[in-house]
Specification:
Elements (H helix, E strand, L loop, with lengths): L1 H9 L4 H10 L1 E5 L4 E3 L7 E7 L2 E7 L2 E8 L4 E2 L2 H6 L6 E4 L3 E7 H10 L3 H25 L2 H11 L3 H4 L2 H8 L3 H14 L1
Antiparallel strand pairs: 1-8, 2-7, 3-6, 3-8, 4-5, 4-7
Helix pairs in contact: 5-6, 8-9
Protein name: Cyclic nucleotide-binding protein
InterPro entries: cNMP-bd_dom, cNMP-bd_dom_sf, RmlC-like_jellyroll
Pfam family, one: cNMP_binding
């Protein structure tokens, strides 16, 4: 709960905004391997992870490719689906027991209609997802796997202790053996 309150303070929104938003929030607990949303469903929520961890992945020809992680205090949604209200092409799965608090699109839009100050929060969330997407996309075009790993560590501090090497390798677009080699070479060169 404090992480969401900190966002409101950062955005210089007043306490009554936080309370009004908090009155709309619902909670959901996911078990490990349970889905928050699956491919083909329409995403109608934005959440924040209270505890736990999730991964977002897409499937192609039976293989899974991780494209995002959601750790404690991060916002979670299938954002393109949320914005367009069309079916998502991704799956968001809990990697451990996870609790999220979330608000539906309908609830959030109603808050914005009642008080335009909530647009600050909507923009903040949008900026987070846009920047993460751009950084990841650019890193695949410009950076080596080792540089992508370094960016991953900066984007998700402590992820190497929370997520399996298999999932990290998938996110980086490499095989787990290559990740081990990169980590060994990085350790040797330090």
């Amino acid at each position: 709960m404090e992480s969401l309150k900190a966002v409101f303070e950062k955005l210089e929104l007043e306490m009554h905004h936080f309370e009004k938003f908090n009155d709309e929030v619902q909670f959901k607990i996911l078990k490990k391997k349970e889905y928050l949303i699956q491919e083909g469903a329409v995403c109608d929520f934005i959440g924040i992870v209270n505890y736990g961890k999730l991964r977002s992945y897409v499937q192609n020809d039976g293989a899974e490719y991780n494209n995002d992680f959601y750790l404690e205090n991060s916002f979670v949604t299938a954002y393109t689906s949320y914005l367009t209200q069309s079916p998502t092409n991704c799956n968001i799965e809990a990697l451990a027991e996870t609790e999220i608090q979330y608000i539906t699109l309908k609830q959030f839009n109603r808050l914005i209609e009642e008080d335009l100050a909530f647009l600050k929060l909507a923009k903040y969330i949008s900026d987070i997802f846009f920047i993460r997407k751009c950084r990841r996309e650019t890193s695949f075009l410009k950076n080596s796997a080792a540089e992508r790993l370094e960016l991953l560590y900066k984007t998700y501090p402590g992820i190497e202790q929370q997520v399996s090497q298999y999932h990290i390798a998938s996110y980086l677009g490499i095989k787990p053996e290559s990740l081990s080699r990169i980590k060994l070479l990085t350790y040797i060169n330090k």
